[in-house]
Amino acid sequence: MANKLGLAVGDDTTSIMALLERVAGIIDNVQTCQTRMEERQLELENSVKTIQEDVVKLTVNHAATSSTVDKLLEKTRKVSCHIKDVRVRVENQNIRVKKVEITQEELLAKNKFRVVIYQDE
């Protein structure tokens, strides 16, 4: 019976040692995976920081561009207003020129030549 117990104890010890080796291998694999995951986490954090910095730069550039566009639009509105004013003045001047031409044609037709002096008030 001692033999049986001795063999059983030896077999149990071998089984326990094999089991412990397997557990140690699993733990090593887990640690290796954890190390790789930590490295990947650091890479991801660095990527996120880079993206955040790029977004901040983009936001600043967008704000500057928006401000410039607003200024250009305001200048465009002013120029458009001035162009409308100039157009009205030119049209009025054209009307006056046509009236003068008509008057001149009438005078020439009547053969009455008079000197017309125009004085701006």
From TrEMBL:
GO biological process: regulation of gene expression
Compartment list: Cytoplasm; Membrane, Caveola
Family: Belongs to the CAVIN family.
Keyword Kinase (UniProt): no
A GO CC term attached to the entry: cytoplasm
Keyword Cytoplasm: yes
UniProt keywords, alphabetically: Cytoplasm, Membrane
Protein name: Caveolae associated protein 4b
InterPro entries given in the database record: Cavin_fam (IPR026752)
Lineage of the organism: Eukaryota, Metazoa, Chordata, Craniata, Vertebrata
Gene: cavin4
Organism: Oncorhynchus kisutch
Main location group: cytoplasm
